[in-house]
C-alpha cells in the first residue's frame, strides 16, 4: 500500500530526539569521567618543601629553563640621565606622593605606555600617586633616542640602564632591580605598587579602600611589614600574584637587603617568597577578593558590546566580566580594544553604576559546563585563588593568626580579607 504523502512524518522528530539523547549521554559520561579523574588527583597530597627551605624548582621562561637560558654579555652604554635620576650631590628634598605605581614595561612598547597614560593615569590624576614606567636598556641607539624623547615629554620613565631589555630580564630580576634602584637613588614612598601593562587600575577605589585608611594625617604609613594583593599558589610556593601587588616601604628595603645577600634568580614574583623563606621573615597580607582583582573574561559578559557581566556571573571567580562596585585590578587586557572598553566604564570617582539590561546572548556550552562543574564543587577558573592553596600550607600561631607557608600572615581568617573602607 502506497504511503499517503499528506500523512504526518515523525522521522525528523525521532531523529532529533536521538541526537539530544546521544548528546545527554555523552555529557553524563564525560562528567563521570572528569569527576573520577579529579577525585583521583585530589586524594593524593603532593610533597611539600621543608620549612623555610624553598623548593628546588627550575622555572621556565618561554619554555626554556632559567638554568639553561643563554647568558648574554652584551656591553650596554649608560642611558642618558632621566628626569627621575638626581644629579650627583643634590639633595632629595622633592615633595613626592605617598604612593608609587611602578608599571613594568618593555622599552619597545611605547604604544601601550601611551594607552595607559591616557586611560587610568589620566582618569585618576587627582589621586595622590606617582606613576612610573620601568624599562630596561634597549641597547639600540635609535630606541634610546625614542625613549629620551618620550621622557622629555612625559618624564615618567625609570630606566634600568644596566639591564638589557629582553625576555630573561623582564621575567626574572627586573622587578627586584627596580626596588634596588629606588633605594640607591634616595627615593622613599609609603607604598609601592608593582603593575603589569595588561592591567587596568581603579586607583580611586584602591586608594580610598586600602591605602588612605592606612596613612596618618601626615601621609605616613600606619602599618608595617604589609603586602596587599591576591595570594596565589603555584609550584609548591605561595606569593602575591604578579599582575598587581603592593608593599610598604620597609618590605621594599628588606627585599633589597635580602637579595643582595642571597642573589636569588627565579621568575620575578617568585623571588620574594624565596627570599622570605630563606630569611624566615613574615609579611602581613591584605588579600584581594576575586571581585576586586580578576582576569577580564569576555564570554562572561552580556554580549551587548559592554564589559558588564551576565546575570549568572560568579563575581569572586579568578576570571569574569565587570560586576558591582568592587573592581580594582582588571587584568589580562592584552587587546587594545578590550582595554579601552574597560576604561570607558570608569570616571574620576571609580567605576560607573552598572546599567540595567539583559543578556543579549545565551551562555555558551562552555560557560554552562563551567557553571555546572562549579556547582558540583569542581575546581575551575571560577574557584577563587585563595581557595586553591592547599590546607597543609596553613598553620596558626599563638595569636590565632593564620600563616601561609610560614611567611604570609593572613590574619584571623584563612582568606585574609581584611576590612575595607568604602
UniProtKB/TrEMBL annotation:
Q: What is its EC number?
A: 2.4.1.-
Where does it reside?
A: Golgi apparatus membrane
Q: What's a Gene Ontology MF term here? A: hexosyltransferase activity
Keyword annotations: Glycosyltransferase, Golgi apparatus, Membrane, Signal-anchor, Transferase, Transmembrane, Transmembrane helix
Q: What class of enzyme is it?
A: transferase
Q: How does it sit in the membrane?
A: Single-pass type II membrane protein
> A Pfam family matched by this chain, by name?
Galactosyl_T
The transmembrane segments are: 21-41
Cellular component GO terms held in the UniProt record: Golgi membrane
- PANTHER family cross-referenced by the UniProt entry: BETA-1,3-N-ACETYLGLUCOSAMINYLTRANSFERASE
Family to which the UniProt record says this protein belongs: Belongs to the glycosyltransferase 31 family.
Protein name, as recorded: Hexosyltransferase
Q: Which organism is it from?
A: Plectosphaerella plurivora
Supply the source organism's classification: Eukaryota, Fungi, Dikarya, Ascomycota, Pezizomycotina
